[in-house]
Amino acid sequence: MAIAVGLAGAGLIGLLIYGISTRSPSRTLDDALAAGVYPSAPEASAPLPRLGASGKRSISSYRGEVVVLNFWASWCEPCREEAPRLERLQRRLARHDATVLGVTYKDAAADSLAFVSQYRLTYPSLRDESGEFAHAFGTDALPESFVLDREGRIVAIVRGEASEAFLQSAATLAERT
Amino acid sequence: MSPPLRPPAAALALWTTVVILAAAVMAATAANGTSPASLPTIERQVMCVTCKIPLNVAESAQASRERVLIRRLITEGRNEAQIKRVLVGEYGPAVLALPAAKGFDLAAYLVPAAVLLALAATLAVLLPGWRRRALEQRERGQPPPQLSPEDAARLQADLDRFD
Fold first, then answer.
1. Cβ of residue A22 closer than 8 Å to a chain B Cβ
2. Which of residues 120-159 of B touch A (CB under 8 A)?
3. Neighboring chain B residues of A21 at a CB cutoff of 8 Å
4. What is the pLDDT of residues A62-91, one digit of tens each?
5. Full-prediction pTM beyond 0.80?
6. Are A15 and B61 within 8 A, CB to CB?
7. Of A25, B95, B158, B162, which is most buried with the most CB atoms under 10 A?
8. Gap between the Cα atoms of A23 and A13, Å rounded
9. Of B91, B92, B107, the CB nearest to A15
């Protein structure tokens, strides 16, 4: 009896650990970058609905462009500070076969579109409806940005509001490659 | 020839199993209800996605936005299940207060049921033994434990004080 209770308890603890580990934001990408490795963007071929347009696109369809992948939502206060900077960056990137690509997270499409309109954003955004795309990037707080090179590899990550220096490095990558 | 009678403990375990499984199935299917919608009913079943607390106790700007959307869907005549589907489409599965009854989330329903089942099985195994020992003790006619002379004197003194 004691063995059965012990096994059941161990099973429950194992289940709890598994549940927590699968739901916690992964830092695999950050660790790879810290080790000097440029990991391929996860879920690159996952089709995501386009915000404010019909159809879906995956980030693999941007292969050949430098992409500043930015997770945002209309309810995210720092995103309001960041949006004008990203729009200025977009105007620079557009001249060099590069783009800012927004991905909305836990946000109603109507609210996201109102945000786009308010900040006159011209860069495209996709909708992560299930949250799985963001989870693959270890995203659970907004905003977060990832710079992808022309081969679709992640070369820089910022978890939190992107600084001017971070955005400048993305522009430099686009201009020099 | 009459069928063999089930021992009481096994019957108890069987009934407990049936009741627990029925409760688990009801809880799992409750999330897919098709009953008419009202704001308080929906608010109890969904989360404020930014504050990560149930919507019925959330006061943030995002909670207000979610309520506006729910009110609009109710006005359009959608039922509970349809409204929850729209909310999941807009905010993702995290908007649901109860996890989906599939995949790993199924554990949220099965584990409590399994724990209750294990407790019922443990009682079914242990109760007959406890009962048998109690009966044997009674049959042996063992007298109840006696107080020591000191304890008896103290008890008597306390009783006398209350008289």
1. yes
2. 122, 125
3. none
4. 999 999 999 999 999 999 999 999 999 999
5. no
6. no
7. B95
8. 15
9. B107
